[in-house]
Design brief:
The protein is an alpha+beta fold and about 400 residues long. About 50% of the residues lie in helices and about 10% in strands. The strands form 3 sheets. Strands 1-2-8-5-3 form a 5-stranded mixed beta sheet, sandwiched between helices. Belongs to the cytochrome P450 family.
Amino acid sequence: MNPHSVRDQLLYPHECFRALRHEQPVYNEQAKFWEVSTYEDVHLLVTDHELFSSDESKFTPASEAPALKSILNMDPPRHRQLRSLLSQAFTPRALAQLTPRITEITQELLDAVEKKGAMDIIDDLSYPLPIIVIAELLGVPIEDRPQFKHWSDEIVSGEYDELTGENRELVLERVRQRVRKTMDEINEYFRSIIAQRRQQPGEDIISALLAARVDGQELTEDELLGFCALLLIAGNITTTNLIGNALLCFDEHPEAMVQLQQRPQLLPSAIEEVLRYRSPVTILARFAASDFILKEQLIRRGQVVLGWSGSANHDPDHFVHPECFDITRSPNQHLSFGHGIHFCLGAPLARLEAKIALGMLLERFTRIRITHERDLEPVNSTFIYGAKHVPITFAVR
């Protein structure tokens, strides 16, 4: 996909998505990978795990194994077995137990900025909140959170403003090497934590996974490391950008913020609309499990197929007036958390954190406005959608 302006595309991609849906709904990028952009095709991609595999190791040499080995790149039956273990941390009962702590953290973060009348939603709220929560769940030192932020940024960022012309493959290779280096650092960190938990188990997810058995067998070290890295990275990126994107939406549509302050019971519906309108994750990847035809295009076994969930969420064939930001929209079957067996495991936690954080923000502060003294800088990533910083001013109620 060739953007008109990479910077504009990253923050305002919908014109590009509209062109893809209309002109090239099944698009081949220089014979390297396929892109699908309609709701129907993206839904098929993430739902039919027999047609579209998540297991890269089936189609690539062992030397090119994925940097992150987790349930994200597994197929059944192993995926089902491991997902059932981790899902216990995100049951309604488990989330109910987390609610007081998430509320306490949010209160402390807002207390720290209240007298200033200004804050950066990302730096002061939507980044530290999920990082603290996931660090406590994993049982790792919260003071290491600057390192967690660095690792997360390294995983999702890229040199995408250079992804045109003859240097494309060189740029992609640099990105791959940086991601692998970052994953090596993350794995080294968690190997040390895992070794500590083997000696001194605690009340945390890592200790629970060490004690878990699947068909009588312990989890392998690679599986343990995959869980830890996935929780650390995915556990903060989605919430960080969901809350930041909510402020972008409310700033563009101030009537929605007024409506929420008058009717806070609409907040869950508003969060779903933010997820649809400005999805924190805009792209999902699979591998063709066999040769097949999609909209008259032959897709070969092993080829990468990318589904633009951000585009699917604006498909007028599925959503009425998709370009309208409507916090009362119902139904709202967006694909921002995927669908099917790989539906985002942490979606309930991300929704809970966003509900508490946004609810408290709107309850405590009024006249909330983004300061536009400088242009917002997008997260430099092809699959994460949001702004690096969202500075706001506010008045205390």
